[in-house]
Design a protein that fits this description.
Length: 156
Amino acid sequence: MSSHLASALPAERGVRPVVATIAVVYHEGRILLVRRANPPDAGFWGFPGGKIELGERIEDAAVRELLEETGVRGRPVRVFTAVDAFDHDASGRLRRHFVLVAVLCEWNSGTPVAGDDALEARWFRLDDLDDAGLSLSLDVAEVARQAAFIARRAAC
């Protein structure tokens, strides 16, 4: 899911965007990320998250996914942005389009442990996100900085 452009080739017939949520936890100057185990973005660092179930509130989905993927318990604070994530096949055809709704979450308890579809789960300082050797999913650094700004402002 590494392109800002949807696709040079048309999408498969009937493909519609899927709404999912990401839990963005900023705690003690650090951001919580998971390294994905499964495609798309296998091996890349991103936020805990996943599909919203029918009838599930966005905020509830975010804290559910946070717990499933990291073992961390959180409280949703607010929805603050949304980003597109595109999954292309080897020929460049759009397979899936996710709309990821970001929810700022307050850490309540727990030490990050990889679970569900994560290889690793750990805290990063915002400055660490600029490390060229760190494989981040698209928009992770920008969304993390937005969350930190909102959280710091709320703390004042």
